[in-house]
Give the backbone structure.
Amino acid sequence: MEKSLQVIGNKEWCGLEELGIPAIKARVDSGAKTSSIQANNIKSILRGREKWVQFEVNPMQENRSVTVRCLAKVKGTRVVKSSSGIPEKRFVISSPIRLGQDVFEIELTLSNRDSMDFRMLLGREAMKGKYIINPEKEYSITQYNETEIKKLYSHLILEKSGLRLGLLASNKELYSNKRLIEAAQARGHEIYFYNIQHCYMSLDANNLEVRYRGGSSIDNMDAIIPRIRPSMTFYGCALLRQFESIGTFCLNSADAITKSRDKLFSSQLFSKNGIKIPLTGFAKSPLETKDLISMVGGSPLIIKLLEGTQGQGVVLAETNKAAESVINAFKSLKANILVQEFIKEAEGKDLRCFVVNNKVVASIQRESAKGDFRANIHRGGMAKKIRITAEEKKLAIKATKCMGLDVAGVDIIRSNKGPLLLEINSSPGLEGIETATGMDIANAIIMGIEKSIKYNPVTKKI
């Protein structure tokens, strides 16, 4: 007689106690062969002659206030296709899983599931011979409410520290801003969102002040995190100077942001400080166009608007005639442009290094979409985690120091002459690099603030 299988729903609560995870929601999916779990900051280590892996799990979706640090023996690696169809190599571990009263061993691949609805996926190998799925049911074996979950993870929750942080930006719903708010709260801080356009200043010599809509004063802040869009640079930096005047620490000063946003000035600073960049030219008069093109090695060449961002306002001119036409057209519109040599051997790839407090915390390689010459994920390009060389790391840190930035996204291109600096971003986005690397960059930024203002977090006592 065939064994009777227990009926489970399409979503269930599981426990992985050996990994320190008492409860995690799992999507039950018979279409997936292997089970997987969300993992960040994955690092392989040796214990004797055995290979182990360290990783971090945030067991609650859209909530990084709880981080479980795990250690497991590596069973092997497996190439698995992601939901987007891209093959990726993943570590495989095994762990006992608890599903209701049942406890049994399963294999799990470690993957970045931050963009998925569930932190864990339960595949058919784990269910074979044990369960049958009723797609109309949910959480049929175990149910937890919010209070019970908080109690299970109470030992990992940080106390409110009294540290008050302000996020100065334009759109609270952007991924980067949501992640910074989440990361600050995860470390026990209070964080307030301030829309740049709703802030205003009092320039009274006896009472310097920044106010927010309705007249409330923004005071007693321990730090301000600026996320200033290019169109708001002038006013946003004015606000930062006001905060600096009243003694508030600003993660990236107004002066550093202003310098980084001026592509010409920053290129001059890089050259002055011995930082290698692609051959670059700048001229005001159309009379000098031909010599300008010759100066950077001729076509093909890149023409950049000084005010362009995220790949906008960047043109590839494949012939000298085309370059002359584009340059003169921009000049007739009184637009400021840079002319730069085209690095053909880079093959549409560049590196983004994320620097926090003079340390490269993550790096990715970006590859242009088919038919595009720009390695830009905002324009359909691809990104993957990469290990950069010591020379590239040194270049990223030196460029960040040159600008005086605490946090920066540094873009580097590999050439036959060695690594060259393309540009530096004082408000780098987090989504692309967190997704590609599986690392918690937002947390690194908040920890950078703590280090700068000499703050030590306290774990809650229970």
DSSP finds eleven helices and 28 strands in the chain. The chain has a mean pLDDT of 86. Residues 390-403 form the longest helix (14 residues). Residues 369 and 379 are 7 Å apart (CA to CA).
